[in-house]
Amino acid sequence: MKLMKPEIILEKVVNGERLGLEEGVALLQSNELIPLGMAANLIRNRKHPEKTVTFVIDRNINYTNVCITKCRFCAFFRNEDHFDAYILSHEEIFSKIEETIAHGGTQILMQGGLHPKLSIDYYVDLLRAIKSRYNIHIHSFSPPEIWHMAISSGLSLKEVLIRLQAAGLDSLPGGGAEILDNRVRHYISPLKITWEQWMEVMTTAHELGMKSTATMMFGSVETLEERVVHMLRVREVQERTGGFTAFIPWSFQPANTDLGGYTASGVEYLKTLAVARIMLDNVPNIQASWVTQGAKMAQVALSFGANDFGSTMLEENVVRAAGVTNRVPLDEIVGCIKDAGYRPAQRSTLYQIIKYY
Question: pTM for the full model?
Fold first, then answer.
């Protein structure tokens, strides 16, 4: 790959030109952190000139920790016979939803392991039970879960998604993406779906009118080129479907995992976030990740292309299992946004403003 000067690439960014693979890699390799952040922030302000930073009030509900994929980077999963293995009852899930609504929440993000004994009827019945009781947006089930439902039920992806949508599923989270490259995936999660299958779930959901997010877990074993390829694959599908509402990059957390290693530095996080804002010119929103980076780094990310602070996340268990215990209450989120010079706003899952602060 030929050497490209960052200043020339950033000039193209300022002029609104779309970048390719080599240019994206060159920006990640560059030590020009501040100019990179300024260029990403310019793009952010062009897309969101209103100087508002949004967030959603929600809760992550992990309905089961039993999982057959046993990803090497995951500290959350358990075998079915493990003493810590669980499946939440409907009553436990309802209690968590009621607490979320009491805190002003508008969304629940349900995700769990790929349990070998949960049928499609389990998910359909759960969705119906929630929707019959609560007025809340269900942003749930990542592509690996959807694919698992299709395999275990003998239904097509489209049939599974139609059934879930009819039962109350509103949108899909972007979990399970990790890095959209099969070399990386085979190493860190050999039993998980391929990147093509992950994308097939998303494109099928988009065709049915469901929106979704896209994520990227970086800093495990991928090359910088594979990191940019991930962004380009999201951009390519977004060009066709327009179904991604946001992109959320977050750094691999190694504690308690089989994979081990080190987490990316704050500088690496900011560079990756900024390059994502620049490369993903057709994805409207970029989320900062306080869950893995902490509130102060997420605040800095607002000057590196991010326009969204993610969610209040009243509960989170997967990243916590990997030793990260960041907790940022609502008033601190609002304070971080104000101190960064932006107006905080609570949003819906689909980025409609609910309340300004």
Answer: 0.93
